[in-house]
Design brief:
By secondary structure, this protein is an all-alpha fold. The chain has three helices and no strands.
Length: about 130
């Protein structure tokens, strides 16, 4: 009976150890997911910027083509309106891109990592001030 209890205690210790390792890995994975989310946000902002630029280039190109290859007065007018519209869209897209990048960087600075190591450091500091939760 005594041998059976010792194995049970050993198994319980092993289970506790595995749970602690799993908790540590989950915290590490959460931090990695957060970092990857930031990267996805940055890339999404860049893709959006490039889409705006492609659209503005197409509008400017269409306006230029309407001016150069058309004998119709209304197409000339459309071309004259499309070219500045495309240029304005390009300027807006650049402003929007820079503004979003600034917000992303600001939020990255305000982000606090909650990894296992940071939690342990916090626990030690709190214990030194007798403020353990």
């Amino acid at each position: 009976m005594r041998h059976h209890q010792a194995m049970t205690i050993s198994e319980q210790d092993e289970i506790k150890k595995l749970k602690k390792q799993l908790e540590h890995q989950e915290q590490k994975n959460a931090e990695i997911r957060d970092q990857m989310a930031v990267q996805r946000t940055i890339f999404a902002n860049e893709r959006t910027f490039m889409a705006y630029l492609r659209t503005s280039l197409a509008i400017v190109g269409g306006g230029f083509a309407a001016l150069k290859f058309s004998d119709e007065g209304y197409l000339d007018m459309l071309g004259l309106m499309a070219m500045p519209l495309g240029a304005a869209l390009a300027i807006y897209s650049f402003y929007r891109y820079l503004h979003r990048q600034k917000l992303i960087k600001q939020q990255m600075k305000e982000y606090t990592h909650t990894s296992y190591h940071h939690a342990k450091i916090h626990e030690k500091e709190a214990a030194s001030y007798n403020n353990t939760p």
